[in-house]
Amino acid sequence: MQFMIMFITGIAGGILAGMFGVGGGIIIVPVLVLLVGMTQHSASATSLVALLLPVGILGVMEYYRSGRITTEHLWFGLIIALGLFIGAYFGAKIAISLSSDTLRKAFAVFTGIVAFRLWFK
User: Fold this and answer.
1) Helix 40-50 vs helix 57-65: angle between axes, to the nearest 10 degrees?
2) Where does the chain cross the membrane (predicted)?
3) Which residue has the higher pLDDT, 36 or 17?
């Protein structure tokens, strides 16, 4: 079940990355905190694992050295990365089909919902 949550999180993050240019902090971290029950530190570090090759290697190394993430978190991040790879393609396809105004409003609604959920967790 966790594999599916991680993979779907990656797909969603990829779609949002393709549509809005975001993923880690907007979808991955909230899902890991709200749905999986990770601490904020573990969720942030796991998100960095998913983004490891392009941007996060030094951050991941520091989190790992400090004991904030485990080998399990590393695997979760890699599964999310697979979903991001696939999801970004579909997110880009969706974004291209929307007007600029619609895309901006969709992003505003989405970030507002995420902010509300995190505030009242």
Assistant:
1) 140
2) 7-36, 42-61, 73-96, 102-120
3) 36
